[in-house]
């Protein structure tokens, strides 16, 4: 098969379309013939050498895909060859085939284009698992950073679907308009004083749950913007990994800072999250409560161009590689 490979960490130009052995499914794995794969910021970090795959995972990039079941491992009993599917991966999505435990594979959401489906499960599983950890509930004020990106495009809509008031941040007028179109009640330019904007939008109360893809750079500001009994859920480190935390301020707000990675979770946890996505999120696509975000499709052999686009910050919504 062909896959996107790299001989060393580096810029997007290190990515090449090369022949590699086709994986064989073992145990309860299934082999998926890939039709499309989502591009995520974690892929950029792995390409740069800053986010190695967990032990036993393929070193090929790609954390999600859509396609059809091509073969079954000896213990795989939940699928048949030819079934359409989407999968949450620990790696291997930038390829023509990937082997994955059957628990991390689900049917695509009803009514969604099969190519678009390749860019849905990673963000859905990330947001669903982290908002459950953070205790997001109807009536909460939900602050979503990076609202125009892949995570943000989903999180805004999911927050509205479960009855929260969504505030988001983005970088320019077009992206702010896009966030409002998705359902954000307030969209704030992060170049401005967005902490003051959150305070104004909430009458000084702050946000109950903050979904943060920035990390260190926003930690102090997030604490200031958080409501009493609020929770900061960190899912990305675009702004660095080390910062000082005013524990006295956290105590006064009775707050919590939560951080978790989806990729490194054991298979049983990821399988449970995938099942919850199929049960709780996919119906929201079917009834129109959540729609597929803006999408840029790029042929998989041109993965370097996809990485350049994501790194530029110019993209809105999701980038999907097509086979």
TrEMBL record:
Annotated InterPro entries: ADH-like_C, ADH-like_N, ER, GroES-like_sf, NAD(P)-bd_dom_sf, Quin_OxRdtase/zeta-crystal_CS, Quinone_OxRdtase_PIG3
Residue ranges of domain Enoyl reductase (ER) in the record: 10-321
Keywords annotated in UniProt: NADP, Oxidoreductase
Gene Ontology terms for molecular function: NADPH binding; oxidoreductase activity, acting on NAD(P)H; zinc ion binding
Annotated Pfam families: ADH_N (PF08240), ADH_zinc_N (PF00107)
Disordered: annotated span: 1-22
Entry superkingdom: Bacteria
Protein name, per record: Putative PIG3 family NAD(P)H quinone oxidoreductase
Record organism: Naumannella cuiyingiana
């Amino acid at each position: 098969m062909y896959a996107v490979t790299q001989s060393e960490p580096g810029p997007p130009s290190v990515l090449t379309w090369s022949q590699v052995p086709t994986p064989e499914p073992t145990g309860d794995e299934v082999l998926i013939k890939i039709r499309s794969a989502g591009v995520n910021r974690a892929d950029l970090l792995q390409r740069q050498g800053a986010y190695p795959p967990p032990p036993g995972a393929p070193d090929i990039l790609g954390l999600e895909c859509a396609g059809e079941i091509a073969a079954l491992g000896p213990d795989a009993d939940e699928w048949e060859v030819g079934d359409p599917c989407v999968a949450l991966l620990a790696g291997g999505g930038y390829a023509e085939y990937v082997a994955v435990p059957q628990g991390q594979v689900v049917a695509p959401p009803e009514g969604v284009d099969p190519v678009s489906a390749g860019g849905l499960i990673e963000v859905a599983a990330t947001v669903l698992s982290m908002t459950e950890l953070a205790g997001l509930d109807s009536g909460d004020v939900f602050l979503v950073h990076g609202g125009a990106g892949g995570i943000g495009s989903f999180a805004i809509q999911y927050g509205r679907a479960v009855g929260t008031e969504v505030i988001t941040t983005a970088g320019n007028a077009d992206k702010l308009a896009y966030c409002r179109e998705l359902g954000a009640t307030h969209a704030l330019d992060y170049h401005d004083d967005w902490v003051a904007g959150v305070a104004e939008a909430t009458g000084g109360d702050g946000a109950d749950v903050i979904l943060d893809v920035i990390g260190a750079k926003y930690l102090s500001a997030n604490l200031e913007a958080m409501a009493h009994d609020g929770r900061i859920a960190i899912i990305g480190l675009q702004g660095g990994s080390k910062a000082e935390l005013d524990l006295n301020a956290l105590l006064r707000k009775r707050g919590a800072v939560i951080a978790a990675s989806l990729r490194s979770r054991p298979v049983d946890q990821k399988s449970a999250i995938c099942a919850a996505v199929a049960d709780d999120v996919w119906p929201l696509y079917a009834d129109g409560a959540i729609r597929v975000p803006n999408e840029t499709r790029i042929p998989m052999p041109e993965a370097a161009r996809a990485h350049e686009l994501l790194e530029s910050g110019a993209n809105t919504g999701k980038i999907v590689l097509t086979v």
